[in-house]
Each structure stands twice: as C-alpha cells, then as structure tokens.
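Page header: ASSEMBLY MODEL / two components / 293 residues total.
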Amino acid sequence: MEEYQPHHEEIGFNADEAHNIVKECIDAILGGVDYNQNNVNQWTAAIVEQSLTHLVKLGKTYKYIVTCAVMQKSGSGLHTASSCFWDTTSDGTCTVRWENQTMNCIVNVFAIAIIL
Amino acid sequence: MSEISKDKASRLLKKRGSVSSVSSPDIKMKEIRSRAKDSVSTVSYVDEPTHHDDASRPAVHMENTYQLGPDRCFPVDAVNHILKDVLTNYLQEEKYEPELCRQMTKTIAEVVKARVKDLMIPRYKLVVIIHIGQLNNQSLHIGSRCLWDDANDTFASFVFRNTSLFALATVYAVYLE
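Prediction written out in full:
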C-alpha cells in the first residue's frame, strides 16, 4: 500500500504566496490613509518589517531582501529596474504594486536560497 | 560606449524576453489604464523565467566544501565607486523623459551587474536595483530590510541627482552558504 508523501520539497521560490503576504501587510498599514509626510517614514519601516516577519514565519530556508518605495502622486514619473545574478532554480523575486488616491507603493521581495 | 552597452543590454533582454511573453499582455493593459487616468505609470518590466522550465531541471545538489566563510570579503568601496561611475556617465547630461528613462533603468541595471560580476568575487549572488525618477518637488521614500547573515552579506548604494532627475542604485551581495 502506498503511503501519501506530502510534497514538502518545493523547488524554487513560491512567488504567489509571497505576493499575498506582502499585499496583506500593505493593506493593513496603508489601507484607507492619505499620504502624510510625517508618517511615511514609519509606514515604510512597518511595511518592510511586517512583510519580513511574515515571510520568515513560512519557515523556508531563504535569505530575504525586502524593499519598499512609497511615492506621493504628483504626476511625476518613477522607473525601477532590477537585475539579479543568482541560481534561477532556487531563488526568486516578487513585486507588489499598490496604490490609492494619494500615493503609490511598490514592494520588491528577493529570496535567495540557503543550501544546508 | 553607451550605444554598445545599450545594444548589449537589449540583446540580453531579448534573449530572455521570449520567456516572459506570459506577463506582457498584463503589462500593456496596465499601461493603457494608467495613461487614461493621467496618473503615474507603475508598470515594471519583469523578466521572470517560467517556472515549469525550472521544475523540469532537477535542483543541483552541491557537495560540502566545509568552508565557513568567504575567501574574499565583498569590496563595498569598489562597488560604490562602480555605481558612482556608471550613474554619472550615463545620466550626467540627461533630462527626464519617460521613454529614455525606461530604457535607461534597464540598461544601467545590466551594466552595473556586469561590472560587479567582473570583479569576480566567488560565491556571491548579486541583486542590483535601480530607481530613476523625475524631480518635481514630490516626496518619495524608499526603505529596505534584509534577513541575512550580517557577517558575510552586505550592500552598496549610491544616489545621483541632476537638474531634472534623480537615480538611486543599490547592489545587495549575498554569500552562498
């Protein structure tokens, strides 16, 4: 009789999972607030720290880099590009874009595998 | 010189670009929507390898090297110098233009990655992030946190400004344990 083997050996970074986690963090912190110069500092810090904490709770053997850019909507342009030199089978990235009427928020997550 | 690297960068992107065709329809739709609303376009070009390709390639199991730390530390000063060099050379005379800057961010990211790779620091993985934006008296806040091994992993960054635009370049170096 075959035993059911749970698929615990996941190859590569699960971008969808990370996307959901980060989106929840942003909604919790920035949902329903307007851009405020005084608070932006603590918002970016909170978003990044909470995302990182939740990602760590997944319990996977990854090093994480989380960056967050919050910009006031003023009609000016912002371009972001990233280029990574890593092992594509095990490492991955995920970008979450979020906006409301007064501001834009871009969060990047880079996950780099640790080989045990 | 910039023409050659622009060509090289676009060729590199085209080579990998064929794999990312899945994401491009979404990106085009988003662009149209943001132009109609007359708001900032937040489209980012993601060049991701398709996951089913990776799953068919078995993960390589490396043998133990019994090495506890890197032979050579990551030279943060040298990389800071590279970032300053590249950003100043490419952007000193430029004015902010959407099409130009879109191409420029991708090109600069590739160029910086190539130059840092040329330093040949073994066992280090690199993540290069470039932000280029228009200077308009608006407020922008960029923050990052990293969960890594503080002894071996590090980052380098540089901010460049001229009359019409600003550019932020960051390189994260992560040691492969």
